[in-house]
Specification:
155 residues, alpha+beta, six-stranded mixed beta sheet
Length: 155
């Protein structure tokens, strides 16, 4: 699974909950529309699990925007509701992406007078791309192993 696949799934989930609102990915245009969201990749990490597996951790920042008044301030109540709803979208502890259930941690972020931020930390285990198992032939199907058990009982 790629980071882009994960970001596309998060974007789709946000758009499902707020239909008609734009979700800008990795950039925010100068004259963006409100209400809307911005989804940004903050960090990617890969750590060893064992010889064949790695743990991937991806941190995304979801920023939510509400309409602003003449002083460029938004309703704090509306911003808080948006933050609670955004956190709720990922509160199950896992997030389905394709055929996988990715572990997710949602941190309620900070807000400002005109936006909110929610940090999403996704973690999953993948096969090491460069690893090949010498006991598995190129077909990908493991060989059948034969065992012989000689068991006797004494009476």
């Amino acid at each position: 699974m790629t980071t882009q696949t994960l970001m596309d799934a998060v974007k789709a989930r946000v758009q499902e909950h707020w239909p008609g609102e734009e979700v800008y990915t990795n950039y925010l245009p100068k004259d963006f529309k409100r209400p809307s969201f911005a989804l940004e990749l903050q960090k990617e990490e890969t750590a060893d699990v064992n010889i064949a597996l790695v743990r991937r951790t991806v941190t995304l920042l979801l920023t939510g925007f509400e309409a602003v008044d003449a002083y460029h301030d938004s309703s704090l109540e509306a911003l808080n509701q948006r933050m609670e709803a955004a956190c709720g979208l990922f509160a199950r502890g896992y997030f389905p992406v394709e055929d996988r259930a990715i572990q997710v941690q949602t941190n309620r972020g900070t807000g400002a007078p005109d936006f909110i931020e929610v940090t999403l930390i996704f973690s999953w285990v993948d096969g090491r791309p460069s690893h090949t198992d010498p006991d598995v032939p190129p077909s990908g199907v493991p060989l059948m192993e034969h065992y012989e058990l000689n068991i006797s009982t004494k009476e």
